Amino acid sequence: MDDELIRCFEAGDVPAGGFHHEQHVRVAWNYVSRYPLPEALERFRSGLKRFALARDKPGLYHETITVAYVLLINERVDRAAAREWDLFAAQNLDLLQWKPSILDRYYTPERLWSDAARETFVEPDREKLTAESISSRY
Predict the structure, then answer these.
(1) What is the pLDDT of residues 21-64, one digit of tens each?
(2) Buried b (16+ CB within 10 A) or exposed e, 86-120
(3) Taking Cα atoms as reference points, which of 138, 108, 134 lies closest to residue 123?
(4) CB count, 10 Å around CB of 132?
(5) Ranges assigned E (strand) in the chain
(6) pLDDT tens per residue, range 102-116
């Protein structure tokens, strides 16, 4: 299933069942699980931009949300005992919830939804995205 999801994502196609927040997280999880963080982040960023463009919605891409989620997913993958998606998802339900979002812990709405945050990664203004702050919550 993961290979088909990634194939659809990279081709700009919507997989059966749609491409919602959970599918975004699952693709990012796959990249983080398979590649070093810089490569995983670049693959996901460029793939998400292509996917949005293929769906004729390039304005939906948000750099800060993308980078922050990949960093959070990477931290969780590094600490995970199991490497299967179902177990990862069950242990990290907060990553799968879109509203409210885990990013609400780190960003005020004004900062996260600013034009600057859409275009480039902006640092959180509530709590830093560090291994210590991420792991101290879980």
Answers:
(1) 999 999 999 999 999 999 999 999 999 999 999 999 989 999 99
(2) eebeeebeebbeeeebbbebbbeeebbeeeebbee
(3) 108
(4) 7
(5) none
(6) 999 999 999 999 999
